[in-house]
Amino acid sequence: MAIGTEDLKALARRLGFQSVGVAEARPAQTIDAYIAWVASGMHAEMAYLPNHIVAKRDPSALLRGVRSVIAVALNYGQPNPARAGAPRIARYALGRDYHKVLRGKLRTLARHLGAVHSEASFRICVDSAPLLEREYAQRAGLGWFGKNTCLIDSRSGSWFVLGFLLTTLELEPDVPALGGCGTCRACIDACPTGAIVLSKGRWAVDSRSCISYFTIEKRGAFTEAEAAMVGGWTFGCDVCQEVCPFNQPRDSQPKRALDTVEPDFRATRTWPSLRELAQIREEAWDALTKGSPVRRVGLAGLRRNTQANLANAEKTQAV
Fold this sequence. Notes:
Number of helices: 12
Strand order of the largest sheet: 1-2-7-4
Number of domains: 1
Radius of gyration: 20 Å
Structural class: alpha+beta
Order of helices and strands: HEHHEEHEHEEEHEEHHEHHHH
Number of strands: 10
Shape: globular
Oligomer: single chain
């Protein structure tokens, strides 16, 4: 008999999670679409994405005897206006690395559950694990797939990161989330590089045209075309979420897209100007990016990105 989840959800909310839900740990239904996306080359140079297909197909490869997937969401929304001469960083990267924040809270959640159910096993999954996260989050009722491929909660938008706790406990599953974008194509029309495309009847992001890919995952020098596509973004890109109607507060739903209350996600770091970052030395870079998601791009990548930002700004001014 499945165990009720009221106490679990109350604890998760006390830990600061925006929402929490449970999905059965059945094999992934979107694995074929994922394989087709990779086969089309839309994963660009991210060679790790075709790996671990067996685990991505079935979470039992990650935790033997897994029965349930606990999905949680943590809001990172906050104002992030563009400022001339300053680096432009995606909202999720303005504070502390979300991997560390989510793992810490999920460890606490697992510890509390383990104290009550000593026979249970758990595994934390945050982004880097081979789990088709959006599918299990949708099954757990946290949101539905938008055309920009983000998971969207009809009540609160899409400014959140996801975390998962696999467990051998049989928990009562939630009703999968339902929703859709209808005829809206705000994200498609606003994407500066046209990276949101229709592929085999599904909306997908083509990484080969995506600013987030270029500024985070791309290794080595930019081509001239890639440098131009980056525009003013230094790390990541928020455009498709900024224009999404579900991220706009409405009189009838004033709680939509609330700013984060998670202290670790707030923008407290002071970033140097683009010109300073373009020439930053290793010691200064190490101190600046400690504990930040921006560290992922590396010293050379951060210099490359800011140099492209500066060149693009000069071209704009010359027009």
